[in-house]
Structure formats: structure tokens, C-alpha cells
Amino acid sequence: MYILSSRFIKLVNPRSPPLPPGSYGWPVIGETFEIRNLCRSGKPDEFIKTRMSKHNKDIFKTSLLGEKTLVFCGSAGHKLLFTSEKQWVLTCWPKILSKLFGDSFLTAPYDEAIRTRKVVTGFLKKDLLQELVQRFDKVCKKRLEEDWVGKDQVLAFSLVKKYAFSTVCDVFAGIDDPNWQCKLLEEFNILLNGVFQLPIYFPGTRHYKAVKSAEVIRQELIKLVKIKRSTKRNNSSDRVEEQNLISYLIDEKDEEGSSTMMLVIKYLAENPEFYHLVLEEQTEIAMSKGAGEFLNKDDLQKMKYSWNVVSEVLRIWPPVQGTFRKAIADFTYAGFSIPKGWKIWWNPNSTHMNEDYFPDPHKFDPSRFERETPAPYAYVPFGGGPRMCPGRDFARVEILVFMHNLVRKFRWELVFPDEKIGVDPMPLASKGLPIYLYPQTHP
Ligand code: HEM
User: Which of 430, 420, 345 has the alpha carbon at shortest distance from 383?
Assistant: First the structure.
């Protein structure tokens, strides 16, 4: 009785802060279609921006994917979410994503996610970057030779995806069967098309197709792990780690890198001056190496300008449009009540595309990272704090190795200079970014 009454007093106490302002939109669908349409039309920052100016610049409420959600904005909002895991919030995902991804790393319960996180970090440490760089370089050279060389025109997105998928399959799963890779890649495309769709489970809908593809992928991965188990005599904990790592990597992680590499190609085509600066940097590295010598991790350290180009792509087009948390206690933030149990979302666009943190935010300007270091928690394509992406070094190696090999081999032009970029759920060019290829003439 006492607990009930004290809870009631707290709820009705006129001095307790109000809920954040905002709108839940339509019944059931909430504001899901609004954000989805803005994302697809290439304006993923508009949803947040308009609500920050209409409701509150620090926080607003909405309803997404069938759940009431609070959106934390700005570097202070990011800081709170990234640094209060297990104190105020816990990483979690909307129910609809759990259905698609099952017990994948994305949606796993806290303890399992932490274990998996350790596996990814441990694997990358164990394998050491040195080894990773060389293996990526080998895969990349092979892919360029087989898929790009001798062509006048290619579809950039499908080929970078093939490269990214090959690195994951080849480096981590030890599979270089092109038929298996193609089959799985097709299923992943269908799965990805169904992410962030309303869960309408009816033949023909994107959600329905995605659920079916998720099942096919799961079965293929189970088969793969069985084959690996029968051919490798490792101990049981290694096997669990291996299964987790393979499913996670293949499950998800080729997408973010592919989207970023595709956009690097686009921006370098649109800005020849940036292309030449990247080429200059990469040529200097290539000239310092012997014939047939692969890249190493020291070479990657020298790719500073190239990384600024990537960083600027990740700022304007972050492949992950934020992640979700759940409040695990009642607390107040920015003068508003945050009730226990509520879903919380952060989105990098609240700082990346915000004049207060990045002047002229829509301008593609890699040198902004030379001029000044972004404010803490303002530049967050990989998240931040203890749940920050553990695969960022993997992604860095994958992308820089690709840039090195691509600019050394080719110049290129966009077939459709006005091709639109939409976010669904990753940034993608509407026609797959076809480009004209010209062999590079260099020393
Ligand atoms: C450009 C490429 C990538 C981007 C932009 C990216 C971004 C992110 C973001 C924003 C998060 C969520 C952080 C949070 O909720 O605070 C995340 C989580 C995660 N990423 Fe990445 N990621 C990329 C590639 C990768 C790769 C290649 C791997 C694996 C090798 C990976 C493994 C993970 C894992 C395991 C988590 C979950 C961490 C946890 O829950 O503690 N990521 N990533």
C-alpha cells in the first residue's frame, strides 16, 4: 500500500517533471512512415532536425516501429546514453528487429551481447591487424582483378558488396566458394530490405520476405558451422565463439562498410581534387614497397588524408542510423521525466548534421577533420562508450585497403551524376552507382 501510494504521489506530484514534448503520430504506425519516407528520399536528418526545433533541442518523444520512444539529441544526450549503460539504460532493440535477427548479436540479451562483443574484440586482437591488413589486401586485389579489370562500366555498389562479403567469408569463415557467397548475398539483400518495415506478415510484404530470408540464412549458417566443426578439432568454447563470430559478421557487417565504400567512390568522382589528394597519398605508400609486397599496418597509419575522406562520408551518411536503449530506472534528463521501461533512440544526425557541431554540415569537406577535432560525443558513427562498435578497426582496414587498390588501378566517372542517395536502412544509391572505369596511368 505504501509503495503504491508513494508511486502514485510521485506520478501526480505537480512538481515532478513532465514527459518530453513531441507527438506519437498515427495510431499503431506512429511516425514510422514519416521517418522512413524522409530516409528513402535522402533526408535522414530532417526528421530529427524538425523535431529538435519544434519540440526541444535535447529530447523529444515519438512512436517508432510500434513502440513509444524518446529521442535523445546532441552531444550531451549521446554522452548520457553512452556512459550510463546498466546505470540508467540498457542497449536493446525494438521487438520487430528481434523477430528478424533472432538471437543475433544485435538483439541478444545483455550478457550474451557482452560475451559476443568480447569475442569480436578478442578475435581482432588475436589475429592482429598486421595479418588482417595483408589478407584484406590479397582478397581485394583478387576481387579487382576478377570483377573490375577490363570493364568499361561497373555497378559499384554490387561490386564493393561482393568485396566486403568476400573478406568476411574468406577471412573469418574460410569459405571462398563463389556460388555459396552469391546465394547468401542475395538472401541478405532481401533481409535488409525488410528491416525497419512495419511487421506485416503477409505473403508479398517486405517484412514477410525478410523473415523467410532470415530463416534461409540461419539454416545456411548452421550448415556452415557443422562443416567447420567436422573439419576442425577445436575445443567447445572456441566453437561457440566461432559460430557467433561467423553468424554476426556474415549476418550484418558487410553492409556498413559497403555503403561507406560506395559513397567514397561517389564523392571522389564528384570531387577530382580530393581524388588526386588520395591518389598522391596512396602512390607514395605504393612507391615505398617492393614488387608484390602486400600492405601492412604501418602503411595504414600513413593513410591520413584517405581516412579523412572516409570520416567525412561517415559523418554525412552514417551507415547506422543510431541504436536503441531502454530506461532501466526512472530518471530526469534536460528537465523531463524519463520513465523506467521506455525505449530510447539516439541518432548520429542530431550532431553530425548540426551547425553547432559541424559548420556548413551538408558540405563534403574532408579537411574539416584536419582543422579541428570534433567535440566529445559529437562525431559518433561508431557510437561511443563501452558499447562502441568493436568492429571499427576491421571496417577501417577493409575500407582503406580498398581505397588504396582502387585509386592505384582506376579513375572513374559517375554514369548518372544526379543519382539520388536514399537510406533504407543503409545509405544506398538509387541505381546502385554505375560508374565508367578508366585504367590508371601512374608511375
Ligand atoms: C563502417 C562500418 C561500421 C559502422 C559505422 C558501425 C557502427 C556501429 C554502431 C553505431 C554500433 C552501435 C553502438 C552503440 O549502440 O552504442 C555498432 C555496434 C556493433 N558493431 Fe559495428 N559498425 C561497423 C562495422 C562493424 C564491423 C565490421 C563489425 C565486426 C567485425 C562490427 C561489430 C559490432 C558489434 C559486435 C556491435 C555491438 C556492440 C555491443 O553491443 O556492445 N561493426 N556498430
Answer: 345
